[in-house]
Amino acid sequence: MKKALITGITGMVGSHLADLLLENTDWEVYGVCRWRSPLDNVSHLLERVNNKDRIYFDYADLNDEMSLISIIKKVKPDYVFHLAAQSYPLTSFTAPIDTLNTNILGTCRLLEAIHLEMVEDEEYKPIIHVCASSEVFGKIPAEKKPKEGINEECPFHPASPYAISKVGTDLLGRYYAEAYGMTVMTTRMFTHTGPRRGDVFHESTFAKQIAMIEAGLIEPKVMVGNLNSLRTYADVRDAVRAYYMLVTVNPVAGAYYNIGGSYTCEVGDTLNTLISYSTMKDKIKIVTDPERLRPIDADLQVPDCRKFKEHTGWEPQIPFEKTMHDLLNYWRDRVGKGENFLTR
């Protein structure tokens, strides 16, 4: 039986990837968790974890090399999905060192742990997915953006410490493929969202605030940052299907791909869409919060995904409207359960 290791399994993407693998394969799924990792996103899987029903949680931390060496040696996964990161761009401006350490050095520690195991056992040849980010492209002037969208060969111009860290992540994946013959592939996923999206991201905080307004918990005001950035949205469930196809459809060592959805709009349009679904749509006001503004913004995030689509046959299937409905209903459900939230 094949084994898959997911770093960041308790995040939005990691939890949806675990769902997909459990439903569509016979693989055993091993999730990397820190002892303090919140388990909200995987609460529906905990009974299976407790029963050791094809899914297992093991402790490791990207900032602890020995824990990574230990888990690779113990599990010896056939597939590694490296999703764990300090993933919030705005936080990276106030915590740049933690972001760079976790994302760059953490990726290096993981790949080195795998490399060491491959040196010890020459028959061990895992397939590895390193998750970078569309943020590596950063702030591309409109006149320099290719007509078909941002392709893989567009120059990097990172616009945050997070984006810089993902440039390092991206290059490390390719380095280990070229230097050591490891089957490492790197992805630059553009905006992807849906149920379980963290409330620090724009579309999710919009949905959370709307759900709280509907419940009478806050005034009918949605606090926002920059609404003018252009984004192309994918559903997280389409994203994890892409990641599965990445490692199973003729994987090419050292390959790097842009992946993203097919619906493009400004952040303000996303907000208006969510408000249009609300029972309070006629009462909600929009208020700019300076604390939600980045010092510099990657404001033209529109991908050209032809390379990945031609290689794998992947296409996004879930429409933007369903993604937004599901995201809003996710927050309505959490608010309805009486949870308390930070106002962010």
Automatic annotation (TrEMBL):
Pfam families: GDP_Man_Dehyd (PF16363)
CDD domains: GDP_MD_SDR_e
Alphabetized SUPFAM superfamilies for the sequence: NAD(P)-binding Rossmann-fold domains
Residue ranges constituting the NAD(P)-binding domain according to the UniProt record: 5-326
Signal peptide, first to last residue: none
InterPro entries assigned to the protein according to its UniProt record, in alphabetical order: NAD(P)-bd_dom (IPR016040), NAD(P)-bd_dom_sf (IPR036291)
Keyword Transferase: no
Cofactors demanded by this protein: NADP(+)
Keywords annotated in UniProt: Lyase
Catalytic activity: GDP-alpha-D-mannose = GDP-4-dehydro-alpha-D-rhamnose + H2O
Keyword Lyase: yes
Molecular-function annotations in GO: GDP-mannose 4,6-dehydratase activity
Function description: Catalyzes the conversion of GDP-D-mannose to GDP-4-dehydro-6-deoxy-D-mannose.
Protein name: GDP-mannose 4,6 dehydratase
Organism of origin: Agathobacter rectalis
